[in-house]
């Protein structure tokens, strides 16, 4: 099957957030795009397919798409696509990652979707669906009218939408969500307390998984062990401080959870390929 390529320029209007409303959605061929797509089914039903996989979807279903997909067998099918480019949309993504439901819904669920036969997606309750619909309406008004400060207002509304969906996913009782929420809770714990001592036994308690399950599922979800994830998070925060503040390398090391500034320098150089001092000088020139 031929894939259609959808470019951002055909949908976005000089802004990295877009509402694409399809009130009478017919079948859609397999297609790809370079942006993320938050899909919320407003009414009807259809079959969502991606490659050789296909799954029935219905009103209230909510999921993120960042790969080739399409729709067929549409019946009274209405949906809203919230399109966004994370790297360009200036939102506090680090703060969002502190929400357990955010990690589970936006980062982990798409990776586990085939394994869970699409049963790990979120189905919003009617009241939550109505709330999300109202927020999307307001985002669309802001983007369309482009009044003074529309970027600030629409971004704030989008963050509110993300929070509602993340909390809804975290409170869902679906069996497929248990492992995802376990790993998501671990990620949020690490994101919130990266400068503190974090022990594997604590992560096992938080995730309600055995050591073997935790290590296996965490690596599957993130590509790293918890220890390596924590190290890279500390280094990412250290790099942020180096770019924006003038405190000493030693102070930065301690603020980011390193007890030894020499060890911090070695790890920073190993992972980023440049020393903290060289990184600061390069960024400030």
What report would you give on this structure?
The chain has 2 domains: 167 residues, Jelly Rolls (Sandwich); 57 residues, Arc Repressor Mutant, subunit A, CATH 1.10.10. Helix content is 49%, strand content 21%. Strands 1, 2, 3, 4, 5, 6, 7 and 8 form an 8-stranded mixed beta sheet that branches. It is globular and about 65 Å long. The relative contact order is 0.10.
The CATH architecture of the largest domain can be named as Sandwich
Order of helices and strands: EEEEEEEHHEHHHHHHHHH
Distance between the termini: 50 Å
CATH class of the largest domain: Mainly Beta
Integer average pLDDT: 87
Beta-strand proportion: 15-25%
How many discrete structural domains? Answer: 2
Helix content: 40-55%
Sheet having the most strands: 8 strands, mixed
What would the keywords be for this entry?
single chain, 285 residues, alpha+beta, Jelly Rolls, Arc Repressor Mutant, subunit A, 2 domains, 8-stranded mixed sheet, 11 helices, 8 strands, 49% helix
Could you give the topology of this structure?
Blueprint: E1 4-6, E2 17-22, E3 28-33, E4 36-50, E5 53-58, E6 61-65, E7 69-84, H1 93-96, H2 100-112, E8 122-123, H3 126-145, H4 150-170, H5 177-192, H6 200-207, H7 211-222, H8 226-244, H9 249-255, H10 261-272, H11 276-284
Parallel strand pairs: 1-3
Antiparallel strand pairs: 2-7, 3-7, 4-5, 4-6, 4-7, 6-8
Helix pairs in contact: 2-4, 2-5, 3-4, 5-6, 9-10
């Amino acid at each position: 099957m031929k894939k259609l390529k959808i470019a951002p320029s055909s949908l976005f209007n000089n802004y990295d957030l877009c509402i694409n409303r399809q009130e009478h959605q017919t079948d859609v061929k397999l297609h790809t795009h370079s942006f993320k797509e938050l899909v919320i089914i407003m009414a009807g039903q259809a079959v969502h397919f991606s490659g050789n996989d296909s799954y029935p979807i219905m009103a209230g279903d909510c999921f993120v798409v960042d790969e080739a997909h399409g729709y067929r067998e549409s019946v009274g099918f209405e949906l809203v696509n919230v399109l966004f480019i994370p790297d360009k949309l200036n939102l506090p993504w680090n703060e969002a990652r502190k929400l357990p439901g955010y990690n589970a819904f936006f980062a982990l669920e798409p990776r586990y979707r085939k394994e869970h036969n699409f049963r790990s997606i979120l189905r919003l309750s009617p009241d939550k669906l109505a709330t999300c619909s109202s927020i999307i309406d307001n985002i669309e008004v802001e983007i369309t009218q482009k009044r003074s400060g529309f970027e600030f207002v629409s971004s704030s509304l989008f963050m509110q939408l993300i929070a509602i969906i993340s909390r809804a996913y975290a409170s869902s009782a679906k069996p497929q969500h248990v492992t995802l929420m376990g790993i998501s809770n671990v990620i949020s714990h690490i994101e919130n307390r990266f400068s503190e001592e974090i022990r594997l036994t604590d992560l096992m308690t938080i995730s309600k998984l055995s050591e073997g399950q935790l290590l296996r599922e965490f690596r599957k979800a993130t590509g790293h062990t918890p220890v390596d994830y924590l190290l890279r998070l500390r280094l990412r925060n250290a790099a942020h401080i180096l770019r924006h503040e003038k405190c000493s390398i030693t102070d930065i090391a301690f603020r980011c959870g390193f007890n030894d500034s020499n060890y911090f320098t070695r790890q920073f150089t190993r992972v980023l390929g440049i020393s903290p001092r060289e990184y600061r000088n390069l960024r400030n020139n």
